[in-house]
From TrEMBL:
Domain Peptidase M20 dimerisation: 197-348
GO BP terms: proteolysis
Keywords: Hydrolase, Metal-binding, Protease
Domain of life: Bacteria
Keyword Zinc: no
The protein's name: Dipeptidase
PANTHER family the record matches: BETA-ALA-HIS DIPEPTIDASE, SUCCINYL-DIAMINOPIMELATE DESUCCINYLASE
GO MF annotation list: metal ion binding; peptidase activity
Length: 457
């Protein structure tokens, strides 16, 4: 298989570049046709790789690509999940090259979606091609690649519920996360959940002259800032009553184990060009971004932001706020607690509305399962190192739903790096990681098939 991958390496890269040229931004309705084009591209390439069938499954939103290769019903089945949609590319002026005109520089592919998640999805298609072309496919495989992950996977849940038979499998395999570094591979053992909402603060019934009224009437922007600031105390502990009630605290041993993973604070600060880190007292940076919940403002607006100045007390102010959740916090409950608290702290001088957006459950995956051990052995063989289990801070809301609706656990075998700048300008993906991923995936198939034969699925 190594030889096949080396031989076809250039084509594997150029095909990915073709996929990256399609601006499949799911959040922006102007790109609806492009999102479909990306789905069609994946469908065609599944067939070209040797899948028995591949189709676009329509939803009220963007289509889901489903394909499969069944070689023997008595063998295990791996269900590969990923997403072909991408985040919006703005701010555009910070890109060194246009986000949908991929370029290779310093052994990295620069484009929106290069790592999250087109590059990582495409590794799976090329791994399938490689296994089939070299006679190495050891089990059945199904692909479910969606186009709405970056906007909350609104329609995937219904698709999964309506297609349980079709999606029957033994394990779900996902490459949409990262590793610690290329010298220190890791396997994701957990993801945070999410509760996302928008708040609206209304003061006077119209924008006012800030000289005539300033000082006597509540300014909704000032009030919104005060309210947001009060959501954390001096220890950066979130003040919403009940917020931490369900949080699973890790034991000292578990935290010590976590602390063994390499992390360099100086490099971290240097990479981000920050004078210091910032977060909850008595937790390390690694813990703050994985096992602890957060509350962050993702956007805030109101008043005059145009050129020059305008002396005005705006009538309204808005913010988008997200909370990352950890086991066993429930997004519904947290959204409810936030809403109740936010309304309760609003002064009488303003009216406040809270609108919930999407959410997602946190997950932790077992690290002793057959599937996890198979992934571990795959890394050992391809990378020459045993991967470290690592809980990640990002969210893939659908993972919890797979478990609930299909009864299936996921293996989170991602190959990205924190420095790949996903969701940011100049997103990129290392050619090394792309090719290494294509080598690692077939080894997971091999070890999963053999281990599940001797130990059960
Ligand atoms: N691939 C990411 C999630 C991720 C990134 C997990 C890095 C672990 C490490 C995914 O595409 C993503 O961006 N998810 C969103 C979820 C949201 C849109 C519901 C997130 O985490 O913000
Ligand atoms: Mn992703
Ligand atoms: Mn993403």
């Amino acid at each position: 298989m190594q030889a096949y991958i080396q031989q076809h390496k250039n084509r594997f890269i150029s095909e990915l570049l073709d996929l990256l040229r399609i601006p499949s931004i799911s959040a922006d309705s102007r790109y609806k046709n492009d999102v479909r084009k990306a789905a069609e591209f994946i469908r065609e390439k599944l067939i070209a790789a040797g899948a028995d069938s591949a189709e676009l499954c329509e939803t009220p939103g963007h289509p889901i690509v489903y394909g499969q290769k069944i070689i023997d019903a008595s063998l295990p089945t791996i269900l590969v999940y990923g997403h072909y949609d991408v985040q919006p590319a703005d701010p555009l002026d910070l890109w060194h090259s246009p986000p949908f005109e991929p370029v290779i520089k310093d052994e990295k592919i620069y484009a929106r979606g290069a790592c999250d998640d087109k590059g990582q999805v495409y590794m799976h298609l090329k791994a399938l091609e490689t296994m089939l072309a070299t006679g190495n496919l050891t089990c059945n495989v199904k692909f479910m690649i969606e186009g709405e992950e970056e906007v909350g996977s609104d329609n995937l849940g219904n698709f999964v519920k309506a297609n349980k038979e079709k999606l029957q499998a033994d394990v779900i395999l996902i490459s949409d996360t990262g590793i610690i570094s290329n010298d220190c591979p890791s396997l994701t053992s957990g993801l945070r959940g999410l509760s996302y909402l928008e708040v609206e603060v209304t003061g006077p019934n119209r924008d006012l002259h800030s000289g005539m009224y300033g000082g006597a009437v509540a300014n909704p922007i000032n009030i919104l800032c005060e309210m947001i600031a009060s959501l954390k105390d001096e220890n950066k502990h979130i003040t919403i009553p009940g917020f931490y009630d369900e949080v699973v605290e890790l034991s000292r041993e578990e935290r010590d184990e976590m602390a063994k993973a390499p992390f360099n604070l100086e490099e971290y600060k240097k990479d981000l060009n920050i004078g210091d880190v910032h977060g909850e007292t008595s937790y390390s940076t690694t813990e703050r971004v994985s096992i602890r919940p957060t509350l962050d403002v993702n956007g805030i607006w109101g008043g005059y932001t145009g050129e020059g100045s305008k002396t005005v007390i705006p009538s309204q102010a808005f913010a988008k706020i997200s909370m990352r959740l950890v086991p066993n916090q429930s997004p519904e409950k947290i959204t409810e607690l936030f809403t109740k608290h936010f309304l309760a702290i609003a002064p009488k001088s303003v009216k406040v509305k809270v609108k919930p957006h999407h959410g997602g459950e946190p997950v932790v995956t077992p690290i002793d399962s057959v599937a996890f051990r198979a992934a571990s052995k795959a890394f050992e063989e391809a990378w020459g190192k045993t991967p470290i289990p690592k809980r990640e801070g990002g969210s893939i809301p659908i993972v919890a739903l797979f478990e609930k609706e299909l009864g299936l656990k996921s293996v989170l075998m991602g190959f990205g790096l924190d420095s790949d700048a996903i969701h940011s300008p100049n997103e990129h993906y290392g050619l090394f990681n792309y090719i290494k991923g294509i080598e690692t995936i077939p080894l997971f198939y091999k070890y999963y098939t053999t281990l599940s034969k001797t130990e059960g699925r």
